């Protein structure tokens, strides 16, 4: 707010408040830098991924079912998504149990779908 006021109240090209603007910008940058360092030190350092939990969530993710839609159809994919959500079973297992696709093919398609969603 102070920077805006200093910029607004300056006179044409001879803004006498430029030193104040520079000081406030540098101070804000220093505060932001310090805040990022504190966040990293107190919140981010030491975090490790729970790979087993991630793998379990990836296999039961109903969002990944959209990768199967072209192969099994919308209604079957929606039904599988509802079952996976209700039971917590792996999507590939449910697809195989319904005899819609081979489990390995379904797992490969789901893996490709998850990578596409994640941008990898």
What does this structure look like?
This protein is mainly alpha-helical and 120 residues long. It folds into two domains: 2-44; 51-118, no CATH class. The chain has seven helices and no strands. The protein has helices at 2-8, 18-44, 51-60, 69-72, 74-87, 91-97, 103-118. The protein is elongated and about 75 Å long. The two termini are 41 Å apart. The model has no long low-confidence stretch (mean pLDDT 83).
The gist of it:
By secondary structure, the protein is an all-alpha fold. It has 7 helices and no strands. Helices cover 71% and strands 0% of the residues.
Q: Kindly estimate the percentage of residues that lie in beta strands according to DSSP.
A: under 5%
Radius of gyration: 27 Å
Number of domain units: 2
Quickly count the helices.
Answer: 7
- Structural class of the secondary structure composition? mainly alpha
- Report the sheet with the most strands, covering strand number, pairing sense and barrel closure: none
Q: Quick check: average pLDDT?
A: 83
Q: Element order, helices and strands?
A: HHHHHHH
N→C terminal distance: 41 Å
Percent helix range: over 70%
Unreliable spans? none
Number of strands: 0
Descriptive tags:
120 residues; mainly alpha; 2 domains
Write the layout of secondary structure elements.
Elements: H1 2-8, H2 18-44, H3 51-60, H4 69-72, H5 74-87, H6 91-97, H7 103-118
Helix pairs in contact: 1-2, 6-7
């Amino acid at each position: 707010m102070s920077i805006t006021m200093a910029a607004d109240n300056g006179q044409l090209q001879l803004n006498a408040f430029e030193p104040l603007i520079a000081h406030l910008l540098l101070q804000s940058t220093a505060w932001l830098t310090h805040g990022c360092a504190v966040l990293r030190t107190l919140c981010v350092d030491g975090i490790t991924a729970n790979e087993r939990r991630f793998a379990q969530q990836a296999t039961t993710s109903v969002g990944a079912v959209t990768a199967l839609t072209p192969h099994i159809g919308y209604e079957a994919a929606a039904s599988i998504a509802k079952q996976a959500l209700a039971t917590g079973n792996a999507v590939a297992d449910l697809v195989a149990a319904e005899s819609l696709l081979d489990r390995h093919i379904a797992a490969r398609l789901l893996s490709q779908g998850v990578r596409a969603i994640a941008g990898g």
